[in-house]
Structures are given as structure tokens and as C-alpha cells.
């Protein structure tokens, strides 16, 4: 079944985008959009996205590189050229439990031991105890410490509440270098999972010095039942073939698009199933409990370095509680679901759900990228 590959924001003509496509005989290539044309700007100045982000002014590098005119933007949209994730050598990191509402859902997963049949009753109990105590709560603040003490007294303390309102953020490695898929690709669920969901997120593009250079959209595919059985299964719940989608492009920060636009971003989610089911959801960055700059600082610094930079999922407010099949069990994916994650400044990331075991295996690694760059005389 052919699906729409991606869409651009209304102000795309004012934006500076960077992306990647796979070119036959050449390998992954850096592209930008100029008007309605796709331009390959792979060069000694920008052999990789990682290298481009190291520039003090990557926007100037993109605009000054002449490049090769590949095709019309429509050729990307119809899938004639494969659109890859817009990052390469960066480590794929992610922050969890950065929104109070999603934090409560993690507690419910933990309390239910990953059993969706128990989730609805536990949700009612948890909300009755918490009430509005988490609203507008700044993580790590004195008020947060007071809420923590009250929750411990009520026997409701959880590891998820610790990272949600305590001083230390949850930061984990979402996926290996080069393993993320782009817009238009299939996203993967581990076949053992029966309770899972998309996670619509903003993904920051950060260089080796911790400087935030731009942003993209991401789907942090999540297996609720697996993580709910044990937080020590986070790796199995989060890191599977094609379980990290990023795209369609990285939008660089410039005079018209800044980190403040990320802070104010509204994300829209639509899931459409082959069974006629439709789920509409949203995530508002205005509700995040830790500022994006704080999350970047907790990821890198004197305690941890990333010589090739990193991509950082910022977490989601989206809580998938709308029932799909069994009343009280909430949402879970079915094969063939089309997931659209949209933002008015970043466009739309579109992916189709499939089992990780049925999607083409990930085979193009770092050594293959180095070989491709050598063939082009760029190393």
C-alpha cells in the first residue's frame, strides 16, 4: 500500500532544511531544499550531517554550497528517492518522563505489571491520589521535593516519579548510530508486544559542544507491556529494528526559527488503521517539566562527551488512553497503522507500523558510510 511520504510546513520557503537520501552508487547524501528542488550538498565542507553541525554557522554552509540539483521535491514525496533519517554519526539519545501526564501513565504501567486489563482501574486510583499536585510542577524544585515526600508517605512513590519530578532526568540511548529510519519508512514493533504506542516528540540536533543547532520530529516507538513488566527491560522496549523514526528534515535555527519555537511547539498525532480506526492525539511542549536546554545539559558536559554530536528526543505529553478494542485497555498498535506526527514549523513525519522482524534488517553501518565517503573522495 502506497502512503504519503512526508509533508512540509507552510513556511518551508523561509526555512533551512537538511536531510539525507540514499543515492545508488554513491550512498547516503546530504540534501537541502531550494524552492521546489532537492539539492545534494554533500561536500568536503559537509560530508556528513554530523560534520555540518560542527560548523559555527551551518546555515551559511548550506546556503553557500552550490550542490547538485537532484530532482523536484515531489520526487521525494512519491518515494522515487528514499528519504533517510536526517542524522548520521550522531548518537540517538532520548529523555523519558518529561511530562506529568505521561509520567502518570508510566506509573500505571509499573503498577499493572504491563497488563493493559488492569490499567483503567489503576489509573483511577492514581489520579484520585495525585489530583492536580503535578500541575505546573518544576522538576527538581522545592515544591517537587514536597510532593515527593507526600507520595512516599502515601506509598505511591515510583522510579518514574523520581525521574519525572526529581533532580535527575531520565536520559537513555534510544538507538545505535545510523539505525534510525526516515519519513515514509516502516517503523518496527517487537512481535512479543501486545500493548504499545507511538510517542510524538521533538528531536534536537546537538553538536559535540552541546550547542543546539536545530530540530526535527521523532517517533519514539514504545512497548508499554515490556517496560511495564520491569524498567530494566527499557532497552528491549525501546531499541528494536526500525523503532526510532526521525524526520522528515532537520530545521536549522536561524532568525526565523529558534529554540523558543521548540519551547512553544504543538505536536499533532494521527494514527489510522486498516480497520478504519482513527486516533487523534497531541503533545504540547509548553507543558514540559524540564527545559530543553536543561535536558541537553544533563545529557552532555564534563560528565559525558559526544564527539560526533547527538540527537535528543525530548519526551512526549501524549498518553494513549483511548480504547481501541477492549474497553479499559486503552490503545495499542495494529500492523499497517499509518502514523502521522505533525508540527506547523517542522512538517509531518509519516510511517507505517510493522513487526521489527518483518522490516528489512538494518545493514548499513558506520564502516559502510566511511567506504561510501571514500569512494566520493570526501575522506
UniProtKB/TrEMBL annotation:
<dbReference type="InterPro" id="IPR051121">
    <property type="entry name" value="FAH"/>
</dbReference>
<comment type="similarity">
    <text>Belongs to the FAH family.</text>
</comment>
<dbReference type="InterPro" id="IPR036663">
    <property type="entry name" value="Fumarylacetoacetase_C_sf"/>
</dbReference>
<keyword id="KW-0479">Metal-binding</keyword>
<dbReference type="GO" id="GO:0003824">
    <property type="term" value="F:catalytic activity"/>
</dbReference>
<protein>
    <recommendedName>
        <fullName>Fumarylacetoacetase-like C-terminal domain-containing protein</fullName>
    </recommendedName>
</protein>
<dbReference type="GO" id="GO:0046872">
    <property type="term" value="F:metal ion binding"/>
</dbReference>
Amino acid at each position: 500500500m502506497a502512503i504519503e511520504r512526508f509533508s512540509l510546513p507552510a513556511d518551508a520557503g523561509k526555512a533551512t532544511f537538511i536531510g539525507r537520501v540514499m543515492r545508488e552508487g554513491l550512498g547516503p547524501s546530504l540534501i537541502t531544499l531550494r524552492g521546489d528542488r532537492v539539492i545534494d550538498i554533500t561536500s568536503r565542507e559537509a560530508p556528513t550531517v554530523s560534520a555540518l553541525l560542527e560548523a559555527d554557522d551551518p546555515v551559511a554552509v548550506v546556503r553557500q554550497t552550490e550542490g547538485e540539483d537532484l530532482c523536484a521535491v515531489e520526487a521525494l514525496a512519491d518515494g522515487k528517492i528514499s528519504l533517510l533519517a536526517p542524522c548520521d554519526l550522531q548518537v540517538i539519545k532520548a529523555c523519558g518522563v518529561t511530562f506529568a501526564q505521561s509520567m502518570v501513565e508510566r506509573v500505571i504501567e509499573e503498577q499493572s505489571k504491563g497488563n493493559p486489563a488492569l490499567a483503567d482501574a489503576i489509573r483511577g486510583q492514581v489520579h484520585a491520589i495525585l489530583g492536580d499536585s503535578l500541575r505546573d510542577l518544576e522538576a527538581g524544585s522545592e515544591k517537587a521535593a514536597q510532593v515527593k515526600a507526600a507520595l512516599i508517605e502515601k506509598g505511591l512513590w515510583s522510579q518514574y516519579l523520581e525521574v519525572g519530578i526529581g533532580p535527575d532526568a531520565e536520559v537513555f540511548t534510544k538507538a545505535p548510530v545510523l539505525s534510525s529510519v526516515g519519513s515514509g519508512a516502516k517503523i518496527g514493533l517487537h512481535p512479543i508486544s501486545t500493548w504499545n504506542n507511538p510517542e510524538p516528540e521533538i528531536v534536537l540536533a546537538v553538536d559535540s559542544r552541546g550547542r543546539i543547532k536545530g530540530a526535527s520530529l521523532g517517533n519514539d516507538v514504545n512497548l508499554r507491556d515490556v517496560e511495564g513488566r520491569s524498567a530494566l527491560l527499557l532497552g528491549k522496549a525501546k531499541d528494536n529494528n526500525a523503532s526510532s523514526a526521525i524526520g522528515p528534515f532537520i530545521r536549522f535555527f536561524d532568525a526565523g526559527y529558534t529554540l523558543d519555537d521548540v519551547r512553544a511547539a504543538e505536536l499533532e498525532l494521527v494514527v489510522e488503521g486498516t480497520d478504519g480506526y482513527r486516533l487523534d492525539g497531541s503533545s504540547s511542549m509548553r507543558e514540559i517539566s524540564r527545559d530543553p536546554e536543561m535536558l541537553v545539559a544533563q545529557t552532555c558536559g564534563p560528565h559525558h562527551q559526544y564527539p560526533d554530536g547527538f540527537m535528543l528526543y525530548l519526551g512526549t505529553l501524549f498518553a494513549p488512553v483511548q480504547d481501541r478494542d477492549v474497553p479499559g485497555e486503552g490503545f495499542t498498535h495494529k500492523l499497517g497503522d499509518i502514523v502521522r506526527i505533525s508540527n506547523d514549523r517542522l512538517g509531518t513525519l509519516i510511517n507505517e507500523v510493522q513487526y521489527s522482524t518483518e522490516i528489512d534488517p538494518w545493514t548499513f553501518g558506520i564502516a559502510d558510510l566511511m567506504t561510501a565517503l571514500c569512494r566520493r573522495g570526501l575522506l
